[in-house]
Specification:
Elements (H helix, E strand, L loop, with lengths): L3 E3 L8 H6 L10 H18 L4 E5 L3 H12 L4 E5 L2 H12 L4 E5 L8 H8 L6 E5 L1 E2 L4 E2 L2 H9 L5 E5 L11 H4 L3 E5 L11 E5 L1 H7 L11 H11 L8 H17 L1 H22 L1 E2 L10 E5 L6 H10 L2 E5 L8 E5 L6 H15 L4
Parallel strand pairs: 1-13, 3-4, 3-5, 5-8, 8-9
Antiparallel strand pairs: 2-10, 6-7, 9-10, 11-12, 12-14, 13-14
Helix pairs in contact: 2-10, 3-4, 5-6, 10-11, 11-13
The protein binds pyridoxal-5'-phosphate (PLP).
Length: about 350
């Protein structure tokens, strides 16, 4: 039986978007491919509030994270982590021999502008990475305020993982001073997994040109140069994803960006209000995500039992992740989700656990 997805990616894909994945193939060096790639880029610039160049990658988001930290770090990267995906930047750097330090916040707490300022004052770093929306903990970081700090340190690049928020929350790339902003297709953009995208500033590319070994497939300079020339990619990209993305971006822009972000806020508000009646929330107030809510499982019910009962009713919810696996569970409110479906899920959980609505 088909299960409605409330996991933080992949999310449900609208049938007509899914159909676009089956568009007959074209040559990837044709004018049609160029037009498709240009169209996707221009729509993504709107969604990201940026004039920066858009790069697509036929890899999941982790691929562009690897390409970004490796391509851009000349001296040393400062990785700010509030959970498993923040830690991933550190692993990516280490495994590519990129000099790196990691700065962790207490569980449920955000990365603060003060923490970033403290690190940058040492003069040791030329790259900062921040997770906009930490999917393992449901924490949103104050990326605009952090951007204001980074702006005061001219050689420092600002890399943001927006994998689980772009398309569900407003991210103003240019205003916030983000040099590279990364997302995957299978989360808030509500497409199948397999493609990722980023915006990249010119100064990030200028910095990357000073790095001798940037790898090959994920070398951002190589990608950038080809895209700048004619919107083409150095190797054969997933054209199927591009067809679906181009169409889905039309739907997103038709819904209206503010409407879409408001819908996510409302949905997450429903989950939070429900969760606070029965449980507690992992993320500190003021830093709670509108795309994934992480709930403390201190009532000591067995999540596996709840999950099984929900699957029988056609819903798949998310367990805990990484370091918070045993003590939390997660409900994602991403993509095309509507209020009535969410209300149904929450009522079903109440019924299964015998909670008072
Ligand atoms: C899912 C996720 C990733 C990893 O993305 P992939 O597309 O699976 O590589 C990275 N960061 C965050 C915040 C995520 O939610």
């Amino acid at each position: 039986m088909y299960k409605k997805l409330f996991i933080p990616g992949p999310t449900d894909v609208a049938p007509e978007v899914l159909e676009k994945m089956a568009t007959p193939m074209i040559g990837h060096r044709t004018k049609e491919a160029t037009a498709l790639q240009q169209s996707v880029s221009e729509k993504l610039q709107k969604l990201m509030y940026t004039r920066n160049t858009i790069l697509l990658s036929t890899s999941s988001g982790t691929g562009l994270m690897e390409g970004a930290i490796r391509s851009c770090t000349r001296k040393k990267a400062a990785v700010f982590s509030v959970g498993a995906f923040g830690d991933r930047w550190y692993e990516l750097a280490r495994n590519n021999r990129v000099p790196v330090d990691i700065f962790k916040s207490e569980p449920g707490q955000p990365t603060t502008p003060e923490m970033v300022e403290e690190a940058l004052k040492t003069g040791e770093y030329d790259v900062v990475t921040v997770t906009h929306n930490e999917t393992s903990s449901g924490v949103v970081n104050p990326c605009a305020e952090i951007g204001e700090v980074i702006r005061r340190y001219p050689g420092v690049l600002y890399l943001v993982d927006a994998v689980s928020s772009l398309g569900g929350a407003k991210i103003e790339v240019d205003q916030w001073g983000i040099d590279i902003c990364i997302a995957s297709t299978q989360k808030c953009l509500a497409l199948p997994p397999g493609l990722s995208l980023c915006s990249v500033s010119e100064r990030a590319i200028e910095a990357a040109e000073q790095v001798e070994f940037r790898g090959y497939y994920l070398d951002l300079v190589r990608l950038y140069k080809r895209v700048k020339k004619d919107y083409q990619y150095p190797s054969t990209p997933s054209l199927s994803h591009m067809y679906a993305l181009d169409y889905q971006l039309d739907r997103i822009l038709e819904e209206g960006l503010d409407n879409r972000f408001d819908r996510h806020e409302k949905l997450a508000g429903m989950v939070r209000a429900w969760a606070l009646r029965h449980f507690s929330l992992f993320a500190k107030e003021g830093y709670r995500s509108n795309t994934v809510t992480c709930i403390n499982n201190e009532e000591a019910f067995v999540f596996a039992d709840l999950s099984k009962a929900l699957l029988e009713r056609g819903f798949r919810v998310g367990g805990g992740y990484g370091p918070f696996k045993a003590t939390t569970f997660r409900i994602a409110t991403m993509g095309e989700l509507q209020e009535d479906t969410l209300a149904e899920l929450l009522a079903d959980i109440d019924e299964i656990l015998g909670l008072e609505a």
